[in-house]
User: What shape does this take?
Amino acid sequence: MNEALDRQLARLRTRLAKTPLPRFFAWWGGELLACLPEHWRKRLAGRSEALLLEVRDRELVVWRERAGRVAEFGRLSLDDLPEAQLDAFRRLRARIENPNARTVLVIPGTRALTRAMTLPAAAEDNLRQVLAFEMDRQTPFKADQVYFDSRIASRDAVARNMRVELVVMPRTSLDPELAAFANGTAELDAVDIWRGIPGEGRHHINLLPAERRARRRDMRLPLNLGLAAAALALLVFNMSESLANRAAAVEAMSAAVDQARAAATEVTELRKTLQDSIGGANFLSDKKRKGPVVIGLLNDLTHRLNDDTYLERLQIENNQIQIQGQSKEAANLISVLSSSPYLGSPRFEGQIQPDPRTSKDRFTISADPRPVDISHAADTPAGQGGAADGGGKEKEAVGTAVKDTVIENATGDAAAKKAADHAADVRAQKEAADGAR
Assistant: This one.
C-alpha cells in the first residue's frame, strides 16, 4: 500500500517538475523570503536543516547542512558502546532547533558508479522502472544487486528527451555500513554521495530503499491540508457574503426603484389633477369669454329695438340665441339685428303671426352668438328708430321694455338672471308710464 502511494506521489512530483510551477514557486518564495526580517529568514532557513553522517576511520563525522551550507558539527567514536553512541548522537541532535531535521548517510563519490544517459521525455513518469530495465545494459550489475537512484540534469523540450544522471552502488558495499546503524545509533532518512571532497555538498539523491528509511511524521501535510481547508472555507464564506451583499444591494435598489415609481405615479396623478383643474378653469373662462355677453346683448337690443317692439322671451342655449316678442314692424327686425355685434346670421323661426289683442306681429328670431371683446361689451351703439322725448330719455335710462321676458342661459350665468329681473322691473315702469300718457 505504501509502495503504491509512493509511486503515485513520485509520478505527481515528476509531472509537477515538468511544469514551470516549481521554478515560479522557487522564485516567488525567494522574493517573499527577502522581504522578511533577518531573524525570520534564519528561522525559516533552519527548517531545511539536515545532519550528514560520514563514516571515517572508525569515527562518525557529523556535518550540519543549513541553507545550502555544510559545516562539521561533531564526531562520534564507533568503538564506544551502542548506548554511548546513541546518547552522544542525541545530544548533538538536541542542539538543533528543528526536530524534523533529516539524517543522511553520505559516502564518497568514488565508491559509487555514475552514468549520464539520455532518455525520452515520456520515460519520466516511470523513470525508476525504466532504469531498472536498463541496469544490465548501462552497468555490469543487475537491478537487484545494486542500490540506485537518479536525478534529471536537464530537459530538451524540442527534442523531447532528458538528460538523466544515474548513481549506482553495489549492495555488498553499502550493506555493512547500513548494518552499523541498525543498532539504533541513528535512523537514516537517505543515503547520498559527496559531489567532491567531504563538506563541499551532496548530490541530493537517495540510494536507501523506501522500506529502510526512517518513518517520520511530516506535520507539514496536515498543516497544509488544514490551511487549504481554511482557505476553502474562507472562500465559500467570502462568496456567500458577496452573494448576500449583492442580494441586499439588489433589494435596496428594488425598494428605491419602487419608491421612485410610487413618487412618479403620485407626481403624474398630481399633474393630471392640476391639468384637469386648469382645464376646468379655462373651460369656464373660455365659455364665458367665447359665449355671448348677456348684459351687453340686452343693452344692444335695448338700443336697437324701437319703442313699438318688446320682447317676451330671450333664450341662450346650446350656442344658439332665440328671441321671441311682438312688434309693429317685425319684418324689418332682421335688417336691424344684422348689424348687432352680438348676433350672427339672425333669421326668423317660423312665420310672423299677428296678435289681435295687441294689434302687433308676433315673431321668433334665432341667431348665432358672435365673439365680442369683453372690454368693449359695455359700449352703447347708436339707437335705432324714433321715440318721444320722454320715451327716448327713458329708453336711454332704463332700456326697451321687455314683456314677460324669460332668459334661460345654459351656462347658468348669474348676471343674466339679474338682467332678467331688471328687465321685468323696467317693463312694469314702462307700462305705468304708457298708462299715464
